[in-house]
Amino acid sequence: MSPDTVRSELPANQLNAWKDDEAALLESLEQIENKHGFIPRHIAEEVSRVLEVKLERLRKLQTKVESNVRKEVDALVAKWKDEEGSLILILHEIENQHGYVPREIAMEVSYALGVKLARIYEVLTFYHYFKLKPPGRHNMSLCLGTACYLKGAPAMLAEAKSQLKVEEGSTTADREWHLDVVRCIGCCGMSPAMVVDGKTYGRLNASDVSRIIAQTTQPKAKS
Amino acid sequence: MSKLTYADLEKYSKVFADSGLNWVRVSMDTGGIAAGADTVCSIFEKGVGTLGFGMEVRRVGSLGYSFADPLVEIAREGMPRVVYGRVDDEVAKRILQEHLVGRRLIDDHVLAWRNRALTFDGPTTYILVKDTGAEKGDKSQFFQFSLAEELKRCNLQDKVQVVRALDMGVYDAGVAVQFLPSRVTYTNVLAPDVARIVKTSVQGKKIIDDLLYKKPDKQVRVVMRNCGKFDPENFQDCLRYGVYQGLVRVLQGMKPEEAIAEMKTSGLRGRGGAGFPTWLKWQITRAVQRTPKYIICNGDEGDPGAYMDRSVLEGDPHSVLEGMIIAAYAIGATRGYFYIRAEYPLAVARVEKAIADARTAGLLGENILGSGFSFDAKVRLGAGAFVCGEETALIASIEGKRGSPSPRPPYPSERGLFGHPTAINNVETLAAVPAIFVHGGTWYSQHGYEKSRGTKVFAVTGKVRNPQLVEVPLGVTLRDIVFDLCGGVFGGKAIKAVQTGGPSGGVIPEHLLDTKVSYESLQELGSIMGSGGMIVMDQDDSMVEVSRFYLRFCVDESCGKCAPCRIGGYQMLQILNRLVRGRGEKGDVERIRAISKAMQKASLCGLGQTAPNPVLSALRYFDPEFKAYLEGGMSYARKMSANRPPEPAAAEPANA
């Protein structure tokens, strides 16, 4: 699940309504307290009973999510189980599907393969390709290979950092942009180059960077 | 497709491959697609239907002229073949209308042919002209005009078109013209020559000797022989160009020992950088008695600035696979792995398609072509770790582990993948193998220099006028590559140095550019040939800065297993950082040398052993620059940083 799909399945207004419920409950409890100076026992018991029911439902939901994760992992493990050294292949698939490797899935993989979680994280943290945090809505990979470096990529990086107000390798607070620095995307013929949301831009300078950021952000602002 | 036999393969290879009088080839490698080849290709695919004659559009690999991406090559009946560069949507539409229908070439987009002729073999129909810039001011337009006027005077304006070219393949040689279709090229053409060019060469079909450009093309394409010729995803197309003919020769008439002997004759050495003789590697692996044996194709091209492996895998995956099958036959391996960077999704997809196609055709699997030899191959993805190019780390990575190198011996040929004997060959090495078996080892070894035989692909990038892939016989000079083939330094500045071998290599200063390129000669200069990245630096580039850049790369990529590399690299980087900020201390240079020595002697794998190379070679040739930082202190550093792009953030530990 990329952040996008999460958002589409759980619209913001519903989430807010749910939050409002809790706020309303707290507010009415406060009113009761103000009125009586204390919260009567029967009311407190009623509230805790309702909350317990809610907690129970949430737990059920949780297991549902977990069983989805399990299903997904089981399918991957079944697909690759005859391969020797399949761990990296499985992690590749997870990374491609989610854009990063979520911790709960890594735990499930560890359980399914019978490999210690530490071993999995040993691999995950070793390779640059695997990410442990979800990517942004837009992702910028700026090439800092030698050719790009010599032809002005550092200036582009500085521009991107100041435009997005984010350090390399991290995501903006609103998860809109993720800025990454990569070593050579193999487009040295049109250096300096960068990849934004899968599209490669070449023969750039610093002002192009801000233009591309503006262009990429724009359509969303309109809608 | 059902299983193929020798006879089928023979039949396919007999079809004249370039047949089909009208075709468009669009270079669809990663570089081309990034430059917009995708939309260009779809414009052609939509457009050819409306032309009223048969026209085939092919998606091919890259010709290597990266500076002119996207590339389009066109054959039109009755017209010479032409390569266009920098084709955007607008130009693609114009090509459809003006070239294919109107039979007129488009100005400013044609690339002149590199395989130039010395005689006219027919009437000239097009003249390419470009000022290759020895002097200031572009005279291309003037010469286009005066040639056209002269032709008009001779009443030839309808028979010959004068076109401004994008690139002539010769540089700093005044105004150059190339006659098509004969490909005769003249250089240093002056205004008074125009009349006699038209009279003698166009009308009389005679060479004007004092203008003729006689130097033959320095490129020899062995590894890249098929790149840009056919659609790598179209299996039958590949067969038509003779792919798998080398395998046929081997399986039909050679014992494994004979195949290894042929490799010995060819003198091919590992193209990944170290230059270990390929035949010897095969023989050692063959000699080990245990089975199963494995073969691995190392496509983990991590050296920033090198992309020849990607180009070959994308443009001609079948030849690499063919090379792998031959190698497997020679060493007796039953399983092969392609280890390819995950950052190269297109290469991965094409290799997977090639493997699937070969398997359906019976070129992989049980009893290949009825020879009794069985072999199968798979793709494994790298995950962005430079150290995985090192063979023991690569093996660990295929096994699904963290890619840390392990001490050698035991060498992989003894105890490699899953503990079994394993031969690891580079993409370029394997791509050269089929050509050796088609043309013979002696043919291959005729190119080359001393102990370095054959050809090598270099990716020339950085501050060079035309960054591109070139394949040259070993033994040409660095100056030939940078100036004759790639046009020298970008923006007319003075060249300072050429960096070869990436983070494991070193810089070669201007006064040594006449060195003949070979494994040994570059090593003597304190660099290495490496995977073939060649980065040109001009007068503005600070060598202290560049060596810091490479060292930072190695520190980032160090796996942290052994102390010399982990700690030594980091400490050295701290010293360089200090130096660049103008806070150098007395004895810093000596300290760098001491740390380097420790790293070279005591590191576990190639990454650590070679990490100090860029710094040491910079110290060797550009010592004054280090001194200037040391003595100049903060004020000097401030002055330098004013010309320098803002500083990238400080290095993080390798696994952050």
Structure description:
The complex is a heterodimer of chains A (223) and B (656). Chain A is an alpha+beta fold. In chain A, 62% of the residues lie in helices and 9% in strands. Chain A has nine helices and five strands, in the order H-H-H-H-H-H-E-H-H-E-E-E-E-H. In chain A, a hairpin with a 5-residue loop joins strand 2 (170-171) and strand 3. By secondary structure, chain B is α/β, with parallel strands linked by helices. Chain B has four domains: 18-203, Glutaredoxin (3-Layer(aba) Sandwich); 235-445, Rossmann fold, CATH 3.40.50; 449-538, Ubiquitin-like (UB roll); 550-642, NADH-ubiquinone oxidoreductase 51kDa subunit, iron-sulphur binding domain (de novo design (two linked rop proteins), Up-down Bundle). Residues 645-656 of chain B have low confidence and may be disordered. The chains are: A alpha+beta (223), B alpha/beta (656).
Helices and strands in order:
The complex is a heterodimer of chains A (223) and B (656).
Chain A: H1 3-9, H2 12-36, H3 41-80, H4 87-98, H5 103-113, H6 117-126, E1 138-143, H7 146-150, H8 153-164, E2 170-171, E3 177-182, E4 194-196, E5 199-201, H9 206-222
Parallel strand pairs in A: 1-3
Antiparallel strand pairs in A: 1-4, 2-3, 4-5
Chain B: H1 6-14, E1 23-27, H2 30-34, H3 37-47, E2 56-60, E3 72-75, E4 82-84, H4 89-101, E5 110-111, E6 126-131, H5 140-153, E7 161-167, E8 175-180, E9 184-189, H6 193-203, H7 235-240, H8 245-253, H9 256-266, H10 278-287, E10 294-299, H11 308-315, H12 317-331, E11 335-340, H13 345-360, E12 376-381, H14 391-398, E13 422-426, H15 427-439, H16 441-445, E14 448-449, E15 452-453, E16 455-462, E17 468-473, H17 478-485, E18 495-500, E19 506-509, H18 519-524, E20 533-538, H19 543-557, H20 563-580, H21 588-602, H22 606-610, H23 613-621, H24 623-642
Parallel strand pairs in B: 1-2, 5-7, 6-7, 10-11, 10-13, 11-12, 16-20
Antiparallel strand pairs in B: 1-3, 3-4, 4-5, 6-8, 8-9, 14-15, 16-17, 18-19, 18-20
Helix pairs in contact in B: 3-4, 8-12, 8-15, 9-10, 9-12, 11-13, 12-15, 19-20, 19-23, 20-21, 21-23, 23-24
